[in-house]
From TrEMBL:
This is tRNA(Ile2) 2-agmatinylcytidine synthetase TiaS. Residues 2-135 form the TiaS-like TCKD domain. It is an enzyme of class 6 (ligase). Its EC number is 6.3.4.22. It comes from Candidatus Methanofastidiosum methylothiophilum. It is found in: Cytoplasm. GO terms for molecular function: ATP binding; ligase activity, forming carbon-nitrogen bonds.
Length: 440
C-alpha cells in the first residue's frame, strides 16, 4: 500500500513532512519492517498559487503485510494524525490517499508528471482515485488530494536525499541552529551536500525562518553523509528526524519549449535572442526580453542578488537559453529566471565622432547625413567611428545564488552527479533508522 498526503500546513505553522514523519513513526511502532524505504518528499509545481511554501507532498510505501486488520489500523492511525495535527485555515485542505501499488495506472502516472508543470483540478484527482477504487480522506475542499495522489505516482529518475531534523511542533519562535556549523557543512561537504550556507551572501539556507517544526534540513547525494554531517550541527535539542528521498535539486520541473508554446504556471527551458536590453526597475528587479517569433519577458528579481549583475550585462542580439517558472504578469508572460545559459554574444558597438587623421582632433558633425569636418584643418569625413565594445561577460551557464534557489532547481554543482532512483532505492537500511532522538 502507498500512502500519500498533502496540504496539512499553513503559513502559521506545521509541515506536511512533519505530519508524514509522525505517521511513519506510528506505523514503525507497530512493526519496524512495515516501512523499509525512506518516504518521498516530492516538490510539485513551484508556480502553484495555492502553495504555502515549497509545494511539497509526502508519500511512503507500507510493505510486508497483507493483513487487512493491520492495514485498516494503519489507515485509521494515519487519518487520526492528520486530523489532530493539521493546521486549520482557509488555505489548508489536508488530504490522505491509500493506494494499492499495482493499481497505479499510466493515466495516474501522467497526472503526477503534469502536477509539476500545470495546474490540475480537484475533480480530476477525485475521478482518478474513484476509477481505481482507492481510499481517500480529506478535510476542507479536497485540494490536498491533488498533491497526495501525485506524490504516490510520480516516477523518479534522478533524485536526492534530505535529512530533516525537527523541533516539537508546540515549540514556536526563533530557532537555534548555529550558523557557524552550517558554514562548516558547506565548506566540508559541498558538493556532496548542497544548499547549506550561501557563503557569498552570508545566509544560512538549512533552517527555514517560518514557524514550522523544521529545525534544519540537509540536502545531498547519500543518506550516510547527511547523517554524519547532521551530527556536527549545533542546535537546540532536536525532537525528531526523518530521511526523505526527494526530487529537490533535479530540475524535474523544467520542460524544453519554444517561446510560442510557453504557458503560465509552467517551468521551462527556452532558447531566444535578446530583443530588449536589460533594465532595472525600482526595487532592484531586472528585466529583459527574448524573442524567437514571439517575445517573452525574463526577470531576475531582487532576491537573486548578484545574479542580476550577470543579467545586466546581456545585450540585444545575444543568444541565450532561459530556465525558470512562468507567470502571466500585467506586462505579459514572464519567466522568473533560475538559470541562464549564454550561447553566443553579439558584437556591441558604440558610434562616435571620427578623429581627424591630420590633426588627431575629434571632428564635428556638419548636419544630418552630411558627415563630419575638422574644426582646425577643415578635412571632411563622411563616416562616423564605429567602436567595438568589449563584452564583460563570458559564454556559459549562470545560476541564481543559493539563498534564492527554488527547491527543485538543480545547482550547477550537481551537474554530472545525477543518479538513478531505481538503481539506488534499496541501498539504505531504513528499517533500522530511528526517527525519535530518544533512541539515538
Ligand atoms: P509545504 O511545502 O510547507 O508542505 P506547500 O507549499 O506544499 O507547503 P500546501 O499547503 O501543501 O503547500 O498547498 C499546496 C496545495 O496545492 C495542495 O493542496 C496540493 O494538493 C495542491 N497542488 C499541488 N500541485 C498542484 C498542481 N499542479 N495543480 C493544482 N494544485 C496543486
Amino acid at each position: 500500500m502507498i500512502i500519500g498526503l498533502d496540504d496539512t500546513d499553513s503559513v502559521n505553522g506545521m509541515c506536511t513532512t512533519y505530519i508524514g514523519t509522525l505517521i511513519v513513526e506510528a506505523i514503525k511502532e507497530i512493526d519496524r519492517n512495515l516501512i523499509i524505504e525512506p518516504p518521498k518528499l516530492l516538490r510539485l509545481n513551484p508556480n502553484n498559487p495555492y502553495k504555502t511554501r515549497g509545494n511539497g507532498a509526502v508519500s511512503f510505501i507500507v510493505s510486508g503485510t497483507s493483513n487487512t486488520e493491520v492495514l485498516e489500523r494503519i489507515k485509521s492511525i494515519s487519518f487520526d494524525i492528520i486530523s489532530k495535527y493539521s493546521e486549520s485555515g482557509d488555505n489548508t485542505n489536508p488530504a490522505i490517499v491509500f493506494l494499492n501499488e499495482n493499481s497505479i495506472t499510466e493515466e495516474i502516472k501522467l497526472f503526477a508528471k503534469r502536477a509539476l508543470h500545470e495546474m490540475l483540478s480537484i475533480e480530476e484527482a477525485i475521478s482518478l482515485l474513484n476509477k481505481i477504487n482507492a481510499e481517500y480522506n480529506f478535510i476542507g475542499n479536497g485540494r490536498g488530494l491533488i498533491g497526495a495522489l501525485a506524490s504516490c505516482a510520480l516516477e523518479l529518475e534522478d533524485f536526492t536525499y534530505e535529512l530533516i531534523v525537527y523541533r516539537n511542533h508546540n515549540k514556536r519562535g526563533k530557532k537555534c541552529v548555529s550558523e557557524e556549523s552550517a558554514m562548516q557543512i558547506e565548506k566540508r561537504y559541498s558538493p556532496r551536500i548542497f544548499s547549506s550556507y550561501d557563503l557569498k551572501n552570508k545566509r544560512m539556507v538549512i533552517s527555514p525562518h517560518s514557524d514550522c517544526p523544521i529545525l534544519y534540513g540537509l540536502r545531498g547525494e547519500s543518506p550516510e553523509i547527511l547523517i554524519e554531517a547532521a551530527s556536527l550541527i549545533e542546535s537546540e535539542t532536536p525532537y525528531k528526524r526523518n530521511l526523505f528521498v526527494t526530487n529537490q535539486g533535479t530540475d524535474m520541473h523544467l520542460e524544453e519549449k519554444e517561446i510560442a508554446d510557453v504557458k503560465p504556471y509552467s517551468s521551462v527551458i527556452v532558447k531566444g535572442i535578446v530583443s530588449k536590453n536589460p533594465y532595472t526597475v525600482p526595487g532592484g528587479h531586472v528585466f529583459f526580453e527574448i524573442s524567437n517569433s514571439k517575445k517573452l519577458i525574463c526577470a531576475a528579481y531582487e532576491p537573486t542578488k548578484e545574479f542580476r549583475n550577470i543579467v545586466r550585462k546581456l545585450s540585444k542580439g545575444d543568444t541565450i537559453i532561459a530556465y525558470g517558472g512562468v507567470l502571466d504578469t500585467e506586462h505579459g508572460l514572464t519567466i522568473n529566471l533560475e538559470k541562464i545559459e549564454i550561447i553566443t554574444l553579439a558584437e556591441v558597438q558604440k558610434i562616435e565622432k571620427p578623429i581627424c587623421k591630420m590633426c588627431n582632433n575629434p571632428m564635428k558633425s556638419i548636419g544630418k547625413d552630411k558627415g563630419y569636418r575638422c574644426k582646425k584643418c577643415h578635412t571632411k569625413n563622411m563616416e562616423a567611428s564605429i567602436i567595438k565594445l568589449p563584452r564583460d561577460i563570458k559564454i556559459g551557464t549562470y545560476e541564481v545564488p543559493m539563498c534564492a534557489k527554488r527547491h527543485l532547481s538543480k545547482p550547477l554543482l550537481r551537474y554530472g552527479r545525477e543518479k538513478k532512483f531505481e538503481e539506488e532505492r534499496f541501498k539504505f537500511n531504513y528499517t533500522n533508522f530511528d526517527i525519535s532522538f530518544e533512541g539515538i
